Amino acid sequence: MAKRMIALDLDGTLLHSDNTISDYTIDVISHISQLGHKVVIATGRPYRMAIQHYRRLQLETPMISFNGSLTHLPDKKWSKEQNITLDKKYLLATLQMSEAIQADFIASEYRQNFYITLDYPNRINPTLFGVPQITESMRMDINKITRNPNALLMQTRHKDKYELAKELCKHFDYNIEVDSWGGPLNILEFSPKGINKAFALNYLLSALNMNKDQLIAFGDEHNDTEMLSFAKVGYAMKNASQTLLPYADKQTDYTNEEDGVAKELEKLFL
């Protein structure tokens, strides 16, 4: 079989809801990697919240995080690393609008750390940032805004997060991407314009001398739409959002809790 690139989302796709990967999935992916296929994590998570899963899978491929703004080879120098950041002026402008957009918090995300507003500390769930608690050292301070972030994250009390996302895109003259998380959380994510998982995968395929006819992708949420549409074969998980289904070529027979990715890969390659 021709070698493939297999792009895997994490949350709701490869991971169980308790943030774990089963031994069965590890074994299947290990066998597929040994056959020469390139298994690639493509996640909306920041790097620091994805690296543990990369290491558990014992991958040696580049990793895509921040929904496509960072493509790099973890723990190694790689001449083809791509790191696209968001101009910090958008962070400063959003902070000034904090009350108008009813923000519980605004956070700037970087490869290894983040800063967050602490006006409403009781409304912050530390697990969203992969930490046990929010500390004073993580407080957003104007003096700390010295570099461009990979992404911004905000939680809003606005009654319609989708409408607010549209309003913010318009406010910034459509020069950035503002998207909502799936599910019940009122979370919005700000990204550089035109950046998504498909953008990063297109770059990575070129860097590795591959083409999109070799790409298979798995996802479950609306931030996977471009990726599944771009791939030669895009799989929506059985538990996928209805928003994603029109962009998928196929749907898995099993959910993320049932190791749906591994079962599909085992049918395809083993």
TrEMBL record:
Keywords of the record: Hydrolase
Entry superkingdom: Bacteria
InterPro entries, alphabetized: Cof, HAD-like_sf, HAD-SF_hydro_IIB, HAD_sf
Residue stretches in coiled coil: none
Database matches in CDD domains: HAD_Pase (cd07516)
Entry GO MF terms: hydrolase activity
This protein's name: Cof-type HAD-IIB family hydrolase
Organism expressing this protein natively: Streptococcus sciuri
